[in-house]
Specification:
Methylamine Dehydrogenase, Chain H; 4-stranded antiparallel sheet; 3 domains; WD40_repeat_dom_sf; Centrosome-WD_assoc; 6-stranded mixed sheet; 38 strands; mainly beta
Length: 425
């Protein structure tokens, strides 16, 4: 699904044929599929309205108007039949039921980076709250929205919460001014707390491994610390130095080369695809000889939100690899072997990394750097793929299909679907 101003376009994922076309009341600012792909919500924050469309019954429609309370966020519940709307100033979360048309309210949600999270099985929801100048977490049962547990947290300014994939442990962490990570059980017991250091800026990113065995913490000190699920203690930490010296690490460096033109074989002026292939620069990877010095940017110390520390990290679907990005070295992606707890590969790009995401089915990483190419890495090697499109197509974000056979590449004004051939085993 994609939106253009106030129009919602639903296409077939394999053929890109238009399946449905809907017209909303105002410019669409957010869209989200229900878990069963039968409904899609369109949020219009400026007007405080959410419209819901049905794929099976195109004539059916639903409009939710928050009125004077306003709207700043909207999302589906895991069952795909309830919508959670967060009002302006985070005064409350309103839970709307599409089946019974009933309404429930959750008071005092906190305005933080990640304040509402669901367990992977969809049974429970955790909400970060702020009341009486203290942080709290409430856990709800998603089947009837009854409160299961309510407890305060030992945080100065709760910044985010995240369930382990198995739904047994909830991680909560403080703002960057206080290095503190807390781990709670489903019944609200504090299992463990972790603090790496005290005074400098603290936690910047957090990610669970798919098996729930490891919790990775990216920090402003340019390190990733890995906690284990047995003792919740640190088992190792990964540094991100500007110089790669180990001969056991493979460094792939992106290089651009202009294609050589054989003018006697070319009829001028070339047109269409021929022109774009002749005059566009080509990109490929070369293996660099260690030691390799990466481009390091010193952050500006007197500005808010400094470009430093590990701001992006993600585990592969098979738990074998961890990809990280150190904002001080914006052009590099670091890939760690979790089985050996060692650095395996560094991808050095020509432009800063905008986004990276693992294939949901196999250890294959896709990344983009704001140009017209998508880059893929797997244990077999890496490749740069040019998007075959006329004009300038700057990829700023990407998203894998759940099957791993295709991905959506997004620019500021356009999208492109990239289909990958599945290798026969």
């Amino acid at each position: 699904a994609s939106c253009v101003q106030h129009r919602l376009v639903v296409r077939d994922a394999s053929s890109l044929q238009v399946r449905q076309l809907y017209t909303c009341l105002d410019q669409i600012q957010y869209i989200e599929w229900s878990s069963d792909s039968l409904f899609i919500l369109c949020a219009m924050y400026k007007r405080g309205i959410v419209q819901v469309w049905s794929l099976e019954q195109p004539d059916w429609h639903c409009k939710i108007d928050e009125g004077s309370a306003g709207l700043v966020a909207s999302c589906w519940s895991p069952d795909g039949r309830h919508i959670l709307n967060t009002t302006e100033f985070h005064l409350r979360i309103t839970v709307w039921s599409l089946c019974t048309k009933s309404v429930s309210y959750i008071k005092y949600p906190k305005a933080c980076q990640q304040g509402v999270v669901f367990t992977k099985d969809g049974r429970y929801m955790a909400v970060a709250e702020r009341r009486d100048c203290k942080d709290f977490i409430s856990i709800f049962v998603c089947s009837n929205w009854q409160l299961l547990r309510h407890f305060d947290t030992e945080t100065q300014d709760l910044f985010g919460i995240e369930w382990a994939p198995n739904g047994c442990v909830l991680a909560a962490w403080d703002s960057c001014l206080e290095y503190k990570l807390l781990l709670y059980s489903l019944d609200g017991r504090l299992l463990s707390s972790y603090r790496a250091y005290e005074w400098p800026l603290g936690i910047k990113s957090v990610a669970w491994s798919p098996s729930s065995q490891f919790l990775a913490i990216g920090s402003f000190d340019e390190k990733v610390r890995i906690l284990n699920h047995v003792t919740w203690k640190k088992i190792t930490e990964f540094e991100h130095p500007a110089t790669i010296a180990s001969k056991k690490t493979i460094v792939y460096k992106e290089v651009e080369k202009s294609p050589s033109l054989e003018t006697e074989k070319c009829s001028f002026p070339p047109t269409g695809a021929l022109a774009s292939s002749l005059f566009s620069t080509q990109s490929k990877y070369e293996i660099s000889q260690v030691p390799v010095s990466l481009q390091y940017i010193k952050p500006v110390a007197d500005r808010a939100n400094p470009k430093m520390g590990v701001g992006m990290l993600a585990f592969s679907a098979d738990n074998c690899f961890l990809a990280t990005k150190n904002d001080n070295i914006p052009n590099a992606v670091w890939i760690w072997d979790i089985r050996k707890l060692k650095l395996l590969v560094v991808l050095e790009q020509l432009c800063p990394i905008q986004c990276f995401q693992w294939d949901p089915r196999q250890p294959r990483l896709a990344l983009c750097t704001g140009n017209s190419r998508v880059y893929l890495w797997s244990p077999a090697g890496c490749v740069a793929v040019q998007v075959p499109r006329k004009g300038d197509f700057q990829i700023v974000s990407l998203s894998w299909h759940s099957s791993g056979d295709s991905m959506v590449l997004l620019s500021k004004d356009n999208l492109c679907v990239c289909y990958l051939e599945r290798e026969e085993v």
